[in-house]
Design a protein that fits this description.
single chain; 190 residues; ADP-ribosylglycohydrolase fold; 11 helices; 63% helix; globular; Ribosyl_crysJ1_sf; hydrolase activity; ADP-ribosylglycohydrolase; Ribosyl_crysJ1
């Protein structure tokens, strides 16, 4: 771990959360399309942006649930099951933007009092990895707690092991990169 002042760490937290929202917003118009379809839009990137800047109007449920994960962490001083579930249920009032069926149906079941172990879909979708950045940030200095929190965050809506693995890998990657100097780079062997 490198020595980092609070401002440097704060900037990385803010950058990670803003990057999540910006990446989500840039990706929304292409969600569900295959690579070959997306590539066709970008023969001339500048021309594409000039002609299509209005398609980047909103973020999706990925950013919404990231925000609710942040709120849960702030409320509990970490990840606590009941508070995280409460925040996910509050998301239903946002209203959800572009939510996947598995996630939406799971959280609706939670709002009707069904325990999360029975409410979660068996989806291996990437939604859990998309909302996990706050856990990678908050638990960056405790990998065991990070794994537990990422697993809980995932399993509440997506009980498939692939979804849980994706959430844990993304959270751990964020934690790893948080303490790296972007001017120095890093080795894949680290």
């Amino acid at each position: 771990m490198i020595d980092m002042d609070f401002k440097g760490l704060e900037d990385k937290f803010i950058g990670t959360l803003l990057g999540t929202a910006i990446g989500d917003t840039l990706g929304v118009p292409f969600e569900g399309q295959i690579r070959e379809q997306i590539i066709r839009y970008f023969d001339d990137f500048d021309e594409f942006i000039d002609k299509n800047h209005n398609i980047f109007r909103t973020y999706s449920d990925d950013t919404q649930l990231t925000i609710h994960t942040v709120k849960a962490i702030i409320r509990a001083g970490g990840i606590e099951e009941e508070i995280l579930i409460d925040e996910f249920i509050k998301w239903l009032n946002d209203p959800p933007i572009g939510a996947g069926f598995g996630c939406l149906s799971s959280i609706r079941k939670l709002s009707n009092g069904i325990p999360w172990k029975n409410a979660a879909s068996n989806s291996g979708g990437n939604g859990t990895a998309m909302r996990i950045s706050p856990i990678g940030l908050f638990y960056s200095n405790n990998i065991e707690q990070l794994k537990k929190a990422a697993s809980l965050n995932s399993n509440i809506t997506h009980s498939h092991p692939a979804a849980e693995a994706g959430a844990r890998v993304v959270a751990a990657s964020i934690a790893f990169l948080l303490y790296k100097d972007p001017n120095k780079g890093f080795s894949i062997n680290e």
